[in-house]
Structures are given as C-alpha cells and as structure tokens.
Design goal:
The chain has 5 helices and 3 strands; from the N terminus they run αααβααββ. The chain has 91 residues and is mainly alpha-helical. A hairpin with a 5-residue loop joins strand 2 (74-76) and strand 3 (82-84). The longest helix has 13 residues, at 58-70.
Length: 91
C-alpha cells in the first residue's frame, strides 16, 4: 500500500473514495467479509474459527490476517481484539 502522503494531491482527486475503502480481489477478502458480518471487530480465535467454518483451513487465517494487517486494514484494539478498518462498512 502506498502511503497517501507520498501521492500527489492531484492524483487523489482522480481516485473515488470507495476505491480506497475496499480493494478488489484482495487475498484476504474472505476474512474481511467475516469481520464485516460480525460488526468489524472480533477476538482473534473467533475470527479464525469463523474462517474455518466457512471452509478455509486454519493456516489460511494467518495468511489472510497478515495480508490485511500489512495493507493497513486489520488493526489490534486496546482490548486485544482485531478490528477491520477502511473496508466496506468498517470505518
């Protein structure tokens, strides 16, 4: 993800806000959808269990969570939970 401060302001005008809020074909979209369905914030184990219940492997949770975190979409809360931000309805 490119930090917005390194992008010229003239280019930001050309990008719709919705495009910044939810990437297309992101590796971790299945996990992001789980967070959205559960109010955007979940305990790590609950999110992992939900992903497995959707037919993914337990190892997929780590891959998807790291991908969301590296792109700035998944953050830790002070209460030790994970929160999806800047994606769909999650702010």
């Amino acid at each position: 993800m490119i930090p917005l401060r390194s992008v010229p302001a003239s280019l930001l005008v050309l990008v719709p806000v919705a495009a910044l809020a939810q990437p297309k074909n992101h590796l971790a979209e299945p996990l992001a959808q789980i967070f959205i369905a559960n109010g955007c914030e979940m305990a790590e184990q609950a999110a992992a269990d939900a992903l497995v219940a959707d037919g993914w492997f337990a190892s997929d949770f780590q891959v998807q969570a790291v991908a969301l975190g590296n792109d700035g979409y998944l953050v830790a809360t002070p209460g030790g939970r994970l929160k999806l931000v800047n994606w769909g309805s999650c702010k």
